[in-house]
Amino acid sequence: MAASQWSFKSAADMSAALAAKKVSAVELAQDTIARIEKHDGKINAVCVRDFERGLETAKAADAALARGEKKPLLGIPMTVKESFNVAGLATTWGYPQHKNFKAAEDALPITRVKNAGGVILAKTNVPISLGDWQSYNEVYGVTNNPYDLGRTPGGSSGGSSAALAAGYGALSLGSDIGGSLRVPAFHCGVYAHKPTYDLCALRGHVGPPNPPLPFTRDLSVIGPMARSAADLGTLLDVMAGPDPIDAGVAYRLSLPASRHPEFKGFRVLVLDTHPLLPTSAAIKEAIARLAGNLETRGVSIARETPLLPDLAASSRLYMRLLMSFLAGAFPPETYAAAQAAAAKLAPSDTSLAAERLRGITLSHRDWVMADGGRTRLRAQWRDVFKKFDAVICPIMPTPAFPHDHLPDQEQRRITIDGKLHPYVDQLVWPGIATLPGLPATAVPLGLDKDGLPLGAQIVGPWLEDHTPIRLASLIEREFGGFTPPPMFKD
Length: 490
Hints:
CATH superfamily of the largest domain: Amidase signature (AS) domain
Helix content: 25-40%
Number of helices: 15
Largest sheet: 11 strands, mixed
Order of helices and strands: HHEHEHEEEHEHEEHHEHEHHHHEEEHEEH
Strand order of the largest sheet: 1-3-2-6-8-7-14-15-11-9-10
Shape: globular
């Protein structure tokens, strides 16, 4: 069976076709289901199926369309990351001990998606505790990259990125604390947007068996994924806004429009080098090609500025704050071992591995001081965005890498242009936007010589999420975007 004409369409295209009665919501849902049943034995992106309820939702969407109703996601087939609670479905976060846990109610972002008319058909695979750039666990197995089954699709939203690349619906939901939206989007050649910190309420995106209470997780956000940049803005607007329980009032946040509607006027800072980790030639070449293309369209390009924060210092700070937060969920024996190891560190050891170890055992006093450093960093970025509208830089130093399931991530290595480097040090590029809480859009930039997706992230100003999304849309329009994986085009 060949792919239907709808399999790789954007949500915007599907919405237009639904409005014009060229296709029904049920037909779109059936197409998505057919592709999952045909291809997912090889990819293993989908871990929880909800086809029966999804088809009922699609039928209801067709009835609503017939009545003339208009909603931003009405009738659009989609998936969601396994980590979001969906009433009646499993939410395990990859933990074998919670494989039978089922959510009693929808997460707030799921409720917002359903209220907007979205047709949720499945949940997608994750690494255990959402803690890897690979998506595998004992409950659901390993998710493979649709462009090369021997490689990672990224993580922790790797199931969602693989699903989008394979044509399983037009949209998905993911989350990001260490690149978990942007990295899988990059590795699977699709789009994702890490929103401004605390823009989208998290209630119900919580590990089992914890109750779905209003909360914020330091550094962590949830956000949209799609095969088209413009769709990110649509889904983001559906998800955005505070939790009415936490805020006390059910108000919505209206985000400002992009600083510029077209290329003309955009001022972009381009970075491709980090002081603590090399960038592969393939990624540098892709970013250089993008910068050259942008210049031909009248975009002002700069490659350096004295306003740029110290990337080495901010990466070290990010390691400490990230691990300080994540360590809250460590079992006692793991935490005790980290305490013993941290006590042996030499003060002169400023390696990223050492900073991560220090972060695990950070005292509250030291955390407060580190948080003050983050506040100063945000001020520096505000100055950057007075002169520039966006910063384009790598998401990761290399395209998708082969599966590597060595249990201790600190012992893993990543190959960058033939040389080995610490696996976890790849955090430096995602951390550029994560630590100051800035919005960042992952944009695909074609394929490398091995057929693997290339890409970059567009970092934007605080709360101006539509600026990087718009620039990504313009890049897609003028220079191309998603390219279907050859193995799964049919």
